[in-house]
Write a structure and sequence with these properties.
Blueprint lengths: L3 H23 L5 H17 L4 E5 L7 H23 L16 H5 L13 H32 L2 E4 L4 E5 L6 E3 L2 E5 L8 H13 L2 H14 L4 H23 L6 H10 L11 E2 L5 H9 L14 H12 L1 E6 L2 E2 L12 E5 L8 E4 L3 E5 L6 E8 L2 E4 L5 E8 L2 E7 L2 E7 L5 H9 L7 E2 L3 E2 L6 E7 L5 E4 L2 E3 L4 H10 L10 E6 L5 H13 L4 E5 L1 E2 L11 E6 L12 H6 L2 E6 L6 H10 L2 E8 L5 H27 L8 H10 L4 E5 L2
Parallel strand pairs: 1-7, 3-5, 17-24, 19-22, 22-23, 26-27, 27-28
Antiparallel strand pairs: 2-3, 4-5, 4-6, 7-8, 9-10, 9-16, 10-11, 11-12, 12-13, 13-14, 14-15, 15-16, 18-25, 19-20, 20-21, 23-25
Length: 661
Amino acid sequence: MNAILPYMFKAGFSITVLFLIYSIFLRRETFFRFNRYYLFGSLVFSLLIPLMPISIDISRASKFTLQIENIIEYRKQYEQLWQEFEEISPESLGIYIYSSDQSFEDVRNQPGFKTSTPERSLRYYVSLIYFAGVCFFLIRFLLMMFSLLRFISKCKIKRMADFKLALSPEPVSPFAFGKYLVVHQNFVNSPEFKPVLSHEAVHIRQFHSHENILMELVLIFGWFQPFFWLHRSAIKENHEFLADQGALIRKDSNHQLYKEVILKQLISTTFFELANSLNFKPIKRRIKMMSKSKSRKGARLKVLAAIPLAALLFLLFANLTVNKNGVNLMNSTESPPCLEGIWKLQNSDGISNLIGFDCNTLHIIEPDKPIAFYNYKLEANYLVLEIENGIKVRFEEKGDLLSIWWAESKASNYVKSKSTNSFDLFQKENNYSIDPVELTQYRILEKSSVIWTLVLDGKKDPALFLNNEKMDFPELRPKLKNLINATSAFDLPFITVLIYADNDLPMKYLLEVRKDLRELDLLKVGYGGVPADNCPKVLYHAVALARKLPFRGDDNFIKSKEEIMESGTYVFENDGRDISENDLREIFGKYDKVIFALNYEPDLSYGKYIASNETIQKVIFDFREEYAQEQFGMKYVELPDVNVKMIKVKYPLMISEAELD
């Protein structure tokens, strides 16, 4: 209830504003179809506004910046009031509940009595009343629906061309609900049946009962909002205007007889709230609208008054995020103090080579240790890490210099990087100029001692760097061989070559590098780039698309596509440029095993090659995730190893590659 009450207040305020526009500008006009769209649209709009995510960046100055900031302050005050409402108790308002046979002093003196017992907030009692109202109106709706359907079930049903005629043995005012037109069984022989049929047929053709049911469902949760009730009346009234209009435009219609039929129906006693009935009041206004001259088309322009108000409602009640210079202004009524940016260690014996702060999270990166992250807050000159029992360390910030006393006797000194993320920092420190690929299916590579960095810097004729040492392409293999000889036998199986290349680099250069890696059995590679999502900025340098190169022995066992497919494995061939997720999902639905054969020209860009790999991996991991949820009710990454292996057998990742000369 704590979530739905604020939601219904926001939706109720929106419907109030939009209903007032209807009442002032549109209610007296005769374009009833247009009014129907407005009434239904404003209802849906008001219900969706609080759920709509809207992100605005006002980092650059504009003429609307001040107005948006004022709206933000209003929203913060509104939300603060709701939070304070939680703290109001009946006792704080001077309302006390006394027992008839016991005084306060008697209770206080009893053993074990605590004077600090929690009080029920006023919000609790309001929520209780609201919940009771929801239950009442839900039961009311179910009873109305049951009563209506039971009444129809007692009728004799005749199937007509566009509807079902329900003949009631009991006196009833003619009404329409769903596909049913309900009338008294003797009424069909009356001369008044024809105009009634014309009227109710409009309700049936235009599905008016659907809107009635939706409005009743809204009222279950918004029963306390008066304008929801007024909106319901307006919708039902407009339904009758539409039905009256539809009945009177017929060539054989008798206007005088039609009005007399409406007046006669007033004496009927049986009436259903959910249905559209001919005797809907006010009759006087309906007759007046029948006789009114048709409104001019230009009158519809009055609805333009709703556009600026709708935009204002968006800003007031939508799920709004407003960013200014990288800070979300909606986070709190007062931006908490925080340390932001990427900070690099200056003293060689300090703790953590690189740390990154945003407004609520600290990331610590140390060689050969898992990347640690903590929620934090600042208290005076102390950094408080919000973990079990808490860690409180002293810090001092002076401009771009930061000292943190991880140990009481010694400070680690950091300098703030001018780079926006750690990949930019990596480039600046080594004078690279790579336009990196964007990655969505990436992993974080943490253990630096088993990562060798290979950089191809440039779009054409790239310079080659191995662990920041520049070399020519023919030198790469002997340099790698030297690294292998100097690496511990325990670490060698875990070596990952992290490759960075420009987005537009032709693949022929990368193929030359990968050939050397395969010759030396350095098969674990990561294609480095920058994350496409909101990954912490300090982790950009450790992001990579993980792949495993085929070992050299595969060259001796090359099979044709036909041989592979005869064994029951489907081969999906592609030129590496455009791979559709939908096509891949469809193929997986047909075959147990699929080999993705990427056949590409040497001039294919590195960026498009990575995009093809990512699409394949995304589809595979989507299937693994869906299967994990279906079979185990858990996320794939949270499963035990034995279940992960089972899913990998069901959905293996097999990619074959070939360069087309």
